Amino acid sequence: MAAVELRDLHKTFGAYTALERLNLEIEDGEFLVLLGPSGCGKSTTMRLIAGLEEPSSGDILIGGKRVNDTPPRDRDLAMVFQNYALYPHMTVAENIGYPLKVARVPRTARADRVRAAAAKVEMAHLLDRRPGELSGGQRQRVALARAIVRTPRLFLMDEPLSNLDAKLRTVMRAELRHLQKELATTTIYVTHDQVEAMTLADRIVILNDARIQQIGTPKEVYERPANTFVAGFIGGPPMTLIPGTVTADRFTHETGALDLPGQPDGPAIIGARPEDIRVTAPGAGDLDGTVFSSELLGDATLLTVRVGPALVAVKVGPDDGRDMDAPVGLSLDRAKLHVFDGQTGQRRD
């Protein structure tokens, strides 16, 4: 079993709080993604689990056993790093097999396990090459093979795809997800890329300012963000957030108004995804604005509309682009409208 539990995990560096009272349970075999901007605490969390940092307080349990005082080498985990960390003077086979050599696995058994691990990442035909002769994607596959060759009970991955180009990242995401499901090994994956998080994770933990903002499946955090930070962080482009005021079940904004029955009076923020906004004639929608930009994406056009001081992203058909500065109206899908408290930023249900 490789379930992981973090109890009141706290980490400070002098006066700086890197992680504040984090509580998290990760199920055996789960692919969990830690997502957030730089400095949010996600890499600190991974380093604490790996044993590369000591917690200021709190407990780390792996397989039900407290491991705070267990050295990294005895935690039965493997890490995959952003920079691959391959030995340039060793062949692919020697790089993959190095953890087994350190563990004094017999040469014959070591060779069999290296070939099996290399086959899983489609590198069996390049075992005699050295890292300098490989592409970025091939080097990352070697790093993955080196991690899985030991059959650890836990994988820790720290932005392993960030050095790859966009096309290769897409391919490697699919391969990584398939490999993790095949091995059924608990995986904790750190990234600041919300596309990686949405496509890879069973569950996503979104962090900001050293605290958890929301935990949920990709579908849950996309469709029901817990606060304005999550709403503005998840999605490409992210959710549009428009501040205003609710009075007598009606939300008013400097460029328009719409009914919000059942909402309390006071400051509020409404949010809408680009696919949930429809372009109308000026004055015929909920809000009025002017086209700031029109970008053809191939299968759709992304309009950015200036509504007062806000920029609103709208997805329309590929042939529905508009001229810059053209006046338009915007109609929001009421069934998919999000409402947040104007002071706390927390979701209103």
UniProtKB/TrEMBL annotation:
It comes from the Bacteria. Pfam families: ABC_tran, TOBE_2. Residues 4-234 form the ABC transporter domain. One of its GO terms (cellular component) is ATP-binding cassette (ABC) transporter complex, substrate-binding subunit-containing. Coiled coil: none annotated. The keyword Oxidoreductase does not apply. Keywords: ATP-binding, Cell membrane, Membrane, Nucleotide-binding, Translocase, Transport. GO terms for biological process: carbohydrate transport. One of its GO terms (molecular function) is ABC-type transporter activity. Belongs to the ABC transporter superfamily. This is ABC transporter ATP-binding protein. It comes from Histidinibacterium lentulum.
